[in-house]
């Protein structure tokens, strides 16, 4: 069935796509330059060079911070960091209050407890309608144990991945898959 594309229908359709939850951070730990926001519009872009992208709404505080930052980090949240996702999704004077962080390369805030950190240098910024697409070249990668936080349909999902058995697909297989 075809229907006109309204903002409401478009948003509802896109909410059916499950995505990981990230917090993008920039600035320097412990200073007024530290900034961060929850972002689900995040994706890998290229293996060579290693590039990722995040889409940031224009007019938001984080938009200016990220579009002008030389360095930023992508913190892939773990399934036990729902409160962190909500903290960085809301407007606040200090989103970092009570959130354990450490300084990454160049002082960029890294959220402790995340399942992965990607430290990036800004590579490009592109027009994306009411958002800008910020592309980062990944300079440092850190992966820890844990399950990712996943969001779809307006809810965080419990995938129960810790209880699965025999369902692991080696990452090397994914790289060599024919698609």
TrEMBL record:
Give the keywords, sorted: Oxidoreductase
**What SUPFAM superfamilies does UniProt report for this protein, alphabetically?**
FMN-binding split barrel
Keyword Ribonucleoprotein (UniProt): no
Q: Which residues form a coiled coil?
A: none
Identify the Pfam families for this entry: Flavin_Reduct
Q: Where is the signal peptide?
A: none
A single GO molecular function, which one? Answer: riboflavin reductase (NADPH) activity
Q: Does the keyword Mitochondrion apply?
A: no
- Describe the location of the Flavin reductase like domain by residue ranges: 14-158
Which InterPro entries does this entry report, sorted A to Z? Flavin_Rdtase-like_dom (IPR002563), NADH-dep_flavin_reductase (IPR050268), Split_barrel_FMN-bd (IPR012349)
Q: Which PANTHER family match?
A: FLAVIN REDUCTASE, FMN REDUCTASE (NADH) RUTF
The protein here is known as: NADH-FMN oxidoreductase RutF, flavin reductase (DIM6/NTAB) family
Species this chain originates from: Blastococcus tunisiensis
